[in-house]
Amino acid sequence: MNAELHDELEIRQMVERWAVWRDAGLWDQFATVWHPEGVMMATWFQGPFRDFIRVTQEGWAKGVSILHFLGGSAIEVAGDRAIAQTKMTISQRGMVEAVGGPVLCDVVCTGRFYDFVTLHEGRWKLLHRQPIYEKDRIEPVDPSAVLQLDQAALSAFPEGYRHLAYIQTRIGYKVKMDMPMLKGEGVARLYARGAGWLAGGPLER
């Protein structure tokens, strides 16, 4: 196996472990995928990975349910740096307004994890994760339920993660309104940041 393929496989392994260990609540293992200065960006949280673990645990204790599923990946390696893009879905379950009262719903958001990855003590670690939110939908767990969403509130959220933001604000999270989506200036800036950093420039947070 050549060195480039070995690096790509190790990075992909790290990305997969992130999803498995985070969703299983295996926090000690989950912490090992991160660089000591690792930062997580999400609709509902932006900050150091240790704080991300803490607030995720707090959410678990309150019954917050957010799960991830991974698809294919594209990884570019340049020396001790890499950019990894991985197709993913984010699935969040929660109560939403409906005829007759709130009902349990699933929101599924399709997108990509855009990861800044670097070698640290001989291992590839996650330095900065920025999801790209491409499209989402909301479905009641009971298919006979008829939802009554606040259309004014829903339409105020960015198109790529509109329903995800809707359900997250309903449980008290403050949602970041300028996350990268499939198209537009936000994702163009992200690609430029990734290219610059991969070429040896500073990581713009």
Q: Keyphrases for this structure?
A:
6 helices, alpha+beta, Nuclear Transport Factor 2, Chain: A, single chain, 205 residues, 6-stranded mixed beta sheet
Average pLDDT taken over every residue: 96
Low-confidence region ranges: none
Largest sheet: 6 strands, mixed
CATH arch. level architecture: Roll
- Helix count equals 6
Could you outline the blueprint of secondary structure elements for this entry?
Blueprint: H1 3-24, H2 27-31, E1 34-41, E2 46-48, H3 49-61, E3 65-78, E4 81-96, E5 103-120, E6 123-140, H4 151-155, H5 162-170, H6 185-198
Parallel strand pairs: 1-6
Antiparallel strand pairs: 1-2, 3-4, 4-5, 5-6
Give an overview in words:
With 205 residues, the chain is α+β, with helices and mostly antiparallel strands. It has a single domain, classed as Roll (Nuclear Transport Factor 2, Chain: A). It contains six helices and six strands; from the N terminus they run H-H-E-E-H-E-E-E-E-H-H-H. A six-stranded mixed sheet has the order 2-1-6-5-4-3, with helices on both faces. Strand 5 and strand 6 form a beta hairpin.
